[in-house]
Structures are given as structure tokens and as C-alpha cells.
Design goal:
The chain has 267 residues and is an all-beta fold. It has 1 helix and 24 strands.
Length: 267
């Protein structure tokens, strides 16, 4: 019989659960696949939720019996919406909290994900946002902080953007990844000019000796690994540096990869 263990965490009045489902052995010998979960909240509430283009319910929405994979999530109400890719991790409940808007620049929210490891990882859009952990300045995004397990308050701010405050419980032996989108402050909307975007530059991950490519928090081999990508994966190119490229992953993670193992995609 499959055993489960639930650990409830708190984040912005929402729950982030660690769920220990079947082991890899059960998947191999009995055909029982590992499961994951997804919790979605929105402002306004009662928004329609779509997973991979299929309508599945209204916010607040929760399903703890999903396959471990990447999902395209869309939340929509009264012409206000958000859409993004969310990667579910085996045995955990990923939390999506969004403030819906008709304009991308005024949309804000965060995705909370637990991975095996330690500490706290904060990434943001826009990048280089100031981070405070428990009211203490901790640096700029992308940022990894070695904090102890327990409850923490994370504040993310950037000039010209509205500040976000996230409260979460960090369990032992896990790394909590907080991916934050900041909304432009209304007072600054009229001062920002945006050139028309004709094409989003992308790079393709090439074959590597290890079979994967490390994504680091700074453009150096001494940078901390914050994610891994596989040959054939497509990444958004944000900035080209000597020997390194700053990229954005499908789940919103931003970091640096060696330019030796990526190539620009043709238009």
C-alpha cells in the first residue's frame, strides 16, 4: 500500500505541502507513478484555471494528484489573465499566487517550489531586485541565501515597481525557490517607453559531456548551481557576456550558462 506523509507550510495565507508519495521502486515494479500537486490562488478569485489548454476549475484551485511534468497554466477572469509554465516536483505541492491584470506590466505574483537541498533561492522579473530576508538586506536577485529551516519573510523590491512580501515556512532538507514577478508602479507607467518587440532571442542547449547543463547564479564556475537544463531545451536569451549567457528558463528561473554549450536559434 502506498504511504503518504503531509507537511503543511504557510505562504501568504496559502499552503505549501511536502507529500511523500510512492518510491521509485514502486514506480518501476508496480507501475505506480510518482505524483505531485498544484495550488493556485488569484486576485480576483473565482478565475478560470486551464492546465495545458484544458479547463480544470476555478480559483482557489488545488489538485494533489497530478503527474510530475511541466504544465502550461492559464488563469483568466473578465479579460484579466496570467499564463506561464509551471514545473511540478515529485512529492511536493507547487503554489502559484497571482494578481490578474489586462496588462502584463501591472501583473504580479509568485511561484513557490520546494526542491531537495537547503536554504532559500529568490529570482525575480525584473532581475537585480533587492531582497530582504526577515527584514535584513540579503542582496539582489538572482540570490541564494543559506538560512535555517523555519518561518521566513521575504521582501522583493525594485525601483519603479511595487514591492512584494512573501511569508513561507522552510522545511529542513529542502530549498525553497521563490520566483517573483513585480508589477510596475502606476505612477511610472507613463514614463516608461518600450520599443516594439519583433522577436524574442532564444538559445538551444547543445550536447554536454555530463548530459545536462548547469544554470548558475553568477557568470562564473564558482557560481552556485540553481538549476539544470538538458540538451535540446530552449531558453530565453536575456544578456550575452564573455563566455556566459544570462538566460530565463521555462519556469521563470533566471541564471547564467556557459556560452560554449548553447547556440542561438534561427528566427
Amino acid at each position: 500500500m502506498k504511504k503518504t506523509l503531509l507537511l503543511v507550510l504557510v505562504s501568504i495565507s496559502i499552503a505549501l505541502l511536502i507529500v511523500r508519495f510512492s518510491s521509485k521502486g514502486l514506480e518501476i515494479f508496480l507501475g505506480i507513478k510518482e505524483k505531485s500537486g498544484l495550488s493556485i490562488l488569484s486576485q480576483p478569485s473565482d478565475a478560470t484555471v486551464f492546465l495545458d489548454g484544458q479547463e480544470v476549475g476555478k480559483t482557489p484551485y488545488e489538485d494533489k494528484n497530478l503527474l510530475v511534468k511541466d504544465y502550461v497554466v492559464k488563469i483568466e477572469k473578465d479579460q484579466s489573465f496570467w499564463e506561464g509554465k509551471v514545473s511540478l516536483i515529485a512529492g511536493t505541492l507547487v503554489v502559484v499566487n497571482r494578481e490578474l491584470s489586462k496588462e502584463l506590466t501591472t501583473s504580479a505574483g509568485e511561484i513557490l517550489t520546494l526542491r531537495k537541498g537547503r536554504g532559500l533561492t529568490v529570482i525575480s522579473n525584473p532581475n537585480s531586485a533587492d531582497v530582504e530576508v526577515d527584514n535584513k538586506p540579503s542582496g539582489k536577485t538572482p540570490l541564494s541565501v543559506n538560512v535555517s529551516s523555519g518561518e521566513h519573510n521575504v521582501s522583493v523590491s525594485h525601483p519603479g515597481y511595487l514591492k512584494r512580501n512573501i511569508r513561507a515556512m522552510l522545511p529542513s532538507e529542502y530549498n525553497l525557490v521563490v520566483s517573483v514577478d513585480l508589477a510596475i508602479a502606476e505612477a511610472d507607467l507613463t514614463t516608461i517607453t518600450t520599443p516594439p518587440i519583433t522577436q524574442t532571442p532564444q538559445v538551444l542547449v547543445k550536447d554536454t559531456p555530463t548530459g545536462f547543463l548547469r544554470v548558475r547564479d553568477k557568470p562564473s564556475l564558482s557560481g552556485k548551481e540553481i538549476a539544470q537544463v538538458k540538451p535540446g531545451d530552449t531558453l530565453i536569451l536575456l544578456e550575452e557576456l564573455p563566455s556566459w549567457d544570462r538566460v530565463r528558463l521555462p519556469d521563470g528561473t533566471e541564471g547564467y550558462v556557459s556560452s560554449v554549450y548553447v547556440e542561438k536559434k534561427n528566427p
